[in-house]
Amino acid sequence: MKQLKQYTLIDFFCGAGGFTEGFRQMGFQTLYGYDSWLPATQTYNHNYQLNCGTKDVSVFLNSIEEINNVPDSTVILGSPPCVSFSTSNKSGRGEKGLGLKLIKSFLRVIAVKKHQSNSILEGWFMENVTNSKKYLQVYYTFKDLNLSDWAISIGKNPEDEALRVNPNTFVINSADYGSHQARKRSISGEIISKGKFIVPSSTHINTGVKQEQWKTLGELIVKLPIPILKSAVGIVRDPIYPSIKIKMDDLTDHFYDSGLYECEWRQSRELKVNHHCMGKMAFPENMENPSRTVTATKSSTSREALIYKSDYNRTGDGEFRSPTIREIACIMGFPITYQFTGNQYAKWRQVGNAVCPCVSRALAKEFLIQNNYPVPTELNLEKEVRLEGILNLNTFIETVFTNPPKRTRDSKFRRHPIKDGNLTVTLSNFDIKEKNKPDGRWMTSIQYGTGINFRHQVIEDNFYKSLEEIIKKELPEGLQFLKIINNGFSEKVANSRLMQKMYESQKSVGNKEEPTYLIDDLKGIINRISAENEFYHQSKDFKIFKYKDKIPLSQILALYGVNKIVSIANQSD
């Protein structure tokens, strides 16, 4: 076993410092962190007691002098911004050029630090979203990295391999290393003494008995105080690092009301459980599994939004909530002593962009093992709370919900009550196939499939009348369905202009219902009618659904209800 020495690191695109934190816990000393975003740099400086300035890492793309100014270190870390590679960015069609430029800047630094005379670099690691791997080269020559002249100056051929990257890139799930979050990320790297990246052995597993089970979201949340406390008295123990105990009054960014307006959580719920082309997700979050990925954008209305049941006994507004900043920080694996600068949205972005410390800790430990260096028996943790310059989000106040968010003018509307496979009957205020802007009229349409060339059928207004006899004949409860729709439900339908206005304001007016509520009501009515697993076989003489012969009766009911809404709205305008 080699003697203990001081291992050092530099962190590029350091953000809030999640990559650094795992290495610090394994005894590494942080020399410097580079980031262009001031709140992240301030957070990094606060937690590592440094004085780093903001810096655009792209400056290293064309300047050897800038690279030479970077301190030499044992390890180099980097997390180039992932937005241009993310599958959620423009449906996976994000601009890749910027991401590749920043990766190249980072790899240039590593190449110089690895191949310079008297190099002390012993390892490097790069984190990105899983989709980035397909854009990485098998290896990069000095010429590829615009280092031809520099390579010649140190006696190397510009065509020589400087770094091997793609074969040294693996997808790692943070849940396999003890995180309360199932977060998959691409990790590239090299332990230079071995000439390759060695993936750390997982410590937790989804199934099996030889390793610990994945840690669940519920196991974490229950160990934190509930956010609705009116005051913080006593001691709180870190749910991940039990050796850390602090005064509850020092637990920042947790005791505030993160409740959501009903219109917000209802939109998220619809996208999760009834999306027109994607699978079903849990709403609210499933506490029996690891958390889904914490994203960099704080959202309350998206499919990706993390939403919990509120601890307040409320219905409608505030019934569900977003996680607190402290909760998502713990989900990521930050100690409760770790502080984040800026407002709520800046803090959320810093946490969501970070590398999980449990993953970086596993990388650091594997680095020590492979180099035959001593592995610390205890984690190096910051156990004191330092709050100077920190904006604490704690308010201990329950929110009064009086001002729901409004949609932009002429917002598009698309909802369907029932989804059978990829078959939907849709209410919209625009032509889904043409993707045009709303023109003041509402539409009934049927979608067959979800691909680029999905089949699409527009249904004319007042078509619902031709379905009445079929509904009466095919369903014992058909007459009851028609009575409900035509006596009570129909009265809730406004004219087309008011429908749009209510949708944009996310409020019903008088006895008229905002269209998302109309679709929810229609779904409830259909579900109360016993039509499950019953089908209507269309005749050749009267084909309602053009591209299917066997139709779920629930979709016949959906078509009737949606077309009734459209017909009333358009005719009463």
TrEMBL record:
Cited InterPro entries: C5-Methyltransferase, C5_MeTfrase, SAM-dependent_MTases_sf
Q: One GO molecular function term?
A: DNA binding
Q: Which domain of life does the UniProt lineage start with?
A: Bacteria
Where would one find the signal peptide in this protein? none
The cross-references to SUPFAM superfamilies, in alphabetical order and at most eight, read: S-adenosyl-L-methionine-dependent methyltransferases (SSF53335)
Which keywords annotate this record? Methyltransferase, Restriction system, S-adenosyl-L-methionine, Transferase
Q: Name one Pfam family in it.
A: DNA_methylase
Reaction(s) the record says it catalyses: a 2'-deoxycytidine in DNA + S-adenosyl-L-methionine = a 5-methyl-2'-deoxycytidine in DNA + S-adenosyl-L-homocysteine + H(+)
What EC number(s) would the UniProt record show?
A: 2.1.1.37
Q: Where is the active site?
A: 82
Q: Which GO terms describe its biological process?
A: DNA restriction-modification system; methylation; negative regulation of gene expression via chromosomal CpG island methylation
Q: Identify the Gene3D superfamilies for this entry.
A: DNA Methylase, subunit A, domain 2, Vaccinia Virus protein VP39
Q: Which family does it belong to?
A: Belongs to the class I-like SAM-binding methyltransferase superfamily. C5-methyltransferase family.
What is this protein's record name? Answer: DNA (cytosine-5-)-methyltransferase
